[in-house]
């Protein structure tokens, strides 16, 4: 096999360069070697046409192949192939159009050699080797003259293109693929002479990932072919799905040489997982591999799966038959951009056995279309026919050229080569052949150009497989993906036009676990993908967006269903049932105290009033009235002023009350001790001294309260610690030290009162005031000792209620212990209201 002396179309950083090297002298050793090394193969092209420059075309004219045993010990038999005749005819048509165009490549003609690769890398390799060996291959000596091979158009699959490209690369022969989309070809160091008119798969996997996210398909299966196209596509898809909510349930691979047993294993995995939780499968495979796989799939009678097809098979006409619809109907995928070739339909009709009597491909086509054999010498069992039969309706899969896709890519590839060669041949010295170092031309109204990686502009049609009027599958365009648009705007879908698997108009669900209801969150199962989860209700104070629970803002709380944040309920000791009860009790206590005051004032001249020091009694009753009324300050919404008044008014009024009782206790004690011979204590406890005692004792409390208000006064606060679902409005004491100081001072006064009264409890007399003071102080101290732990442990408004209750309880205790016995004698036992009786000196 000789080295090519004509190295055309070097493509480097966007520039196609024509290099013509004419080498006429070869060494005699090469010539002599040619007599020894004879090509031991027979791989004839399907179609041949001579020209000044030859373009080779490699197409999967058949899909099912039976590979012979190639052990290199004998001349191998030809490969038996049994499938893209129209693509090859499109190349022939394009070449004829270029040759007829007076403005494109004037004075030059293009020829072609078209080979069949059977959609198999090994067969594609044999085609590439045959491409490099001139027009006639049998008995062709090596290294004898130059080949006019300009470029190769092919291959259909990425795996085949890798093989062919590597064979052509040492000879710098460019290869332009019409259907190899593998992202691996973007590596210009490995594939410097490879170009294509189909978008890079990086864009397709990006489009598929956006489709999965768009329809919330979070649990999908992936099936791929055993080749670089499938491997790189799956890798790209997994990369695009990172950071999304989509999980891949499994990955399976269709073997390169189809194996039914392996295919059945894939289907069992697919069917089992489909029954459990999902019904969506993404497939990156070629048409040739999918054909036997889907036929076996249909035999298993598996339905209900939503297929997402790659561009390699989403528009394959082989799957348009009625028998496929129950299993593949509703398939969605991304098809390469369609175009329009005006002469293609008429050109296809001119291809018949009469015009090409010796062409086996045409003969096979006729047998497949009409079920007859146009050759009389054929050993076929089919009935004979003339080879001039008219096209029938059922031949639409072959003759329908209204929206060609792959054929249009073949068409563009031929014109890309023609325009490149034209620019090179017409190039003027000193100026480059390509404007802006890039090839651009317009065909059928479309601008065709390439990026620096040799790829075309990314654009896909979104295809949906729907039932046609005749029952066959029709490819309906339901949207597009434009890779030139900004991120997030590439995908445009008309969802109402889509018919999903099972003739459903609703988007199918494909999840491992159903979405959590509002108010719950996802809890990932241990050892399983993130798409498999349990739903756990959100905690109090949190709401969910079906993914995770988030806290409500500070002043808000979750509703019962944990679906929305609502304003927290604001609580304080309001005028509700509890507040009204305390208010009524306070008013009743104050009224009772006023009634007692009125009784005492009315009977102020009686013995019991006079003996018990009426002035101090009036002071005590006045102070008790204030004590009853100060509890009202604890009811209602806390404000700045009410918070400062609550504890200060309470502490001062109670201090006043206890000071009066302390004064009374001292007077009682002094009155009885003054009766003893030689003692005169009463002169030190006259009215002025009593007032001074009351004033001075109360003044101490006033000073403490004043310091409290100046240093750290009480203030209203919003308490959310006791119960997070509520906002409790309360009065913060400001300074805890000051608060406990005022309570401690009142306690000190009460204890002093109690001790003095206890000492005078056994003094003579029928009405010993000291006993009642002792009981009153005992009750007072008991109430406030019980108040301290209750106050500390009570939250918010209950703390105010406890304090208010303590005020009322202690006030009632003082009122009843000190004045109930007196009122009893005054009102019910007036005969005992005498000095003699009270002093215990009445005659018996």
State the main characteristics.
844 residues, alpha/beta, Rossmann fold, 4 domains, eight-stranded mixed sheet, six-stranded mixed sheet, 22 helices, disordered N terminus, receptor, G-protein coupled receptors family 3 profile domain-containing protein, GPCR_3_C, GPCR_3_Ca_sens_rcpt-rel
Give a written overview of the molecule.
The chain is an alpha/beta fold and 844 residues long. It has 4 domains: 6-198 and 402-443, Response regulator (Rossmann fold, 3-Layer(aba) Sandwich), CATH 3.40.50; 201-339 and 456-497, Response regulator (Rossmann fold, 3-Layer(aba) Sandwich); 520-567, no CATH class; 577-839, Up-down Bundle (Rhopdopsin 7-helix transmembrane proteins), CATH 1.20.1070. Strands 12-11-13-14-15-18-19-20 form an 8-stranded mixed β-sheet, with helices on both faces. The protein has a 6-stranded mixed β-sheet with strand order 3-7-4-8-9-10, sandwiched between helices. Strands 27-29-28 form a 3-stranded mixed β-sheet. The N and C termini lie far apart (158 Å). The model is unreliable at 1-35 and 65-83 (pLDDT under 50).
């Amino acid at each position: 096999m000789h080295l090519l002396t004509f190295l055309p179309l070097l493509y480097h950083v966007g520039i196609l360069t024509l290099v013509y090297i004419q080498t006429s002298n070869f060494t005699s050793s090469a010539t002599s070697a040619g007599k020894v090394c004879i090509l031991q193969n027979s791989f004839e092209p399907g179609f041949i046409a001579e020209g000044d420059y030859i373009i080779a075309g490699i197409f999967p004219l058949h899909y099912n192949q039976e590979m012979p045993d190639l052990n290199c010990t004998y001349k191998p038999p030809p490969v038996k192939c049994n499938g893209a005749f129209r693509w090859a005819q499109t190349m022939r048509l394009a070449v004829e159009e270029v040759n007829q165009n007076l403005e494109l490549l004037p004075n030059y003609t293009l020829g072609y050699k078209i080979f069949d690769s059977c959609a198999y890398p090994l067969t594609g390799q044999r085609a590439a080797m045959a491409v490099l060996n001139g027009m006639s291959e049998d008995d062709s000596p090596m290294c004898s003259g130059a080949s006019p091979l300009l470029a190769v158009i092919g291959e259909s699959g990425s795996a085949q293109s890798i093989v062919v490209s590597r064979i052509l690369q040492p000879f710098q022969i460019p290869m332009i693929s019409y259907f190899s989309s593998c992202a691996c070809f973007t590596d210009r160091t490995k594939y410097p002479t490879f170009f294509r008119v189909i978008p890079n798969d990086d864009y397709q996997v990006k489009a598929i990932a956006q489709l999965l996210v768009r329809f919330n398909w979070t649990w999908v299966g992936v099936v791929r072919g055993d080749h670089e196209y499938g491997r790189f596509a799956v890798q790209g898809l997994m990369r695009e799905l990172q950071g999304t909510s989509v999980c891949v349930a499994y990955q399976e691979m269709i073997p390169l040489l189809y194996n039914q047993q392996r295919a059945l294993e894939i289907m069992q995995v697919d069917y089992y997982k489909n029954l459990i939780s999902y019904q969506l499968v993404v497939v990156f495979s070629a048409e040739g591999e999918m054909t036997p796989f889907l036929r076996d799939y249909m035999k298993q009678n598996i339905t209900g799966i939503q297929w997402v097809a790659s561009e390699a098979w989403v528009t394959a006409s082989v799957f348009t038959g009625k028998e496929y619809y129950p299993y593949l109907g509703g398939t969605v995928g991304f098809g390469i951009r369609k175009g329009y070739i005006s002469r293609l339909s008429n050109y296809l009709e001119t291809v018949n056995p009469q015009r090409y009597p010796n062409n086996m491909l045409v003969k096979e086509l006729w047998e497949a279309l009409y079920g007859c054999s146009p050759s009389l010498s054929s050993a076929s069992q089919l009935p004979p026919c003339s080879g001039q039969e008219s096209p029938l309706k059922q031949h639409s899969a072959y003759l329908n050229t209204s929206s060609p896709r792959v054929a249009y890519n073949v068409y563009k590839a031929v014109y890309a080569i023609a325009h490149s060669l034209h620019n090179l041949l017409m190039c003027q010295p000193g100026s480059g052949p390509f404007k802006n170092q890039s090839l651009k031309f317009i065909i059928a109204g479309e601008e065709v150009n390439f990026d620096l990686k040799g790829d075309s502009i990314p654009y896909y049609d979104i295809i949906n497989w729907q039932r046609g009027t005749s029952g066959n599958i029709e490819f309906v365009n339901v949207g597009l993906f434009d890779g030139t648009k900004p991120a997030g705007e590439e995908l445009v879908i008309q969802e109402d036009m889509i018919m999903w698997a099972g003739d459903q108009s609703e988007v199918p669900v494909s999840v491992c676990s159903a979405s959590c209801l509002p108010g719950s969150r996802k809890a990932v199962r241990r050892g399983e993908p993130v798409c498999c989860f349990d739903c756990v209700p959100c905690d109090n104070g949190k709401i969910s967006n079906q993914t995770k629970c988030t806290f409500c803002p500070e002043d808000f709380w979750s509703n019962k269903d944990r679906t929305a944040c609502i304003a927290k309920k604001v609580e304080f000791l309001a005028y509700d049932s509890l507040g009204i009860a305390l208010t009524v009790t306070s008013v009743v206590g104050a009224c009772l105290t006023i009634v007692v005051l009125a009784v005492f004032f009315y009977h102020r001249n009686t013995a019991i009033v006079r003996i018990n020091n009426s002035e101090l009694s009036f002071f005590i009753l006045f102070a008790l009235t204030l004590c009853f009324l100060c509890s009202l300050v604890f009811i209602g919404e806390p404000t700045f002023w009410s918070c400062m008044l609550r504890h200060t008014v309470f502490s001062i009024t109670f201090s006043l009350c206890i000071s009066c009782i302390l004064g009374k206790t001292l007077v009682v004690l002094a009155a009885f001790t003054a009766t003893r011979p030689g003692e005169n204590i009463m002169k030190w406890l006259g009215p002025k001294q009593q007032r001074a005692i009351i004033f001075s004792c109360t003044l101490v409390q006033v000073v403490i309260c004043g310091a409290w208000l100046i240093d750290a006064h009480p203030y209203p606060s919003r308490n959310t610690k006791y119960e997070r679902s509520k906002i409790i409005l309360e009065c913060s004491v400001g300074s805890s030290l000051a608060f406990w100081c005022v309570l401690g001072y009142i306690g000190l006064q009460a204890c002093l009162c109690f001790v003095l009264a206890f000492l005078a409890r056994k003094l003579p007399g029928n009405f010993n005031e000291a006993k009642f003071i002792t009981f009153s102080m005992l009750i007072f101290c008991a109430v406030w000792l019980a108040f301290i732990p209750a106050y500390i442990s009570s939250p918010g408004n209950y703390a105010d209620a406890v304090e208010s209750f303590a005020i009322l309880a202690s006030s009632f205790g003082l009122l009843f212990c000190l004045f109930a016995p007196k009122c009893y004698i005054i009102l019910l036992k007036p005969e005992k209201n005498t000095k003699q009786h009270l002093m215990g000196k009445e005659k018996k």
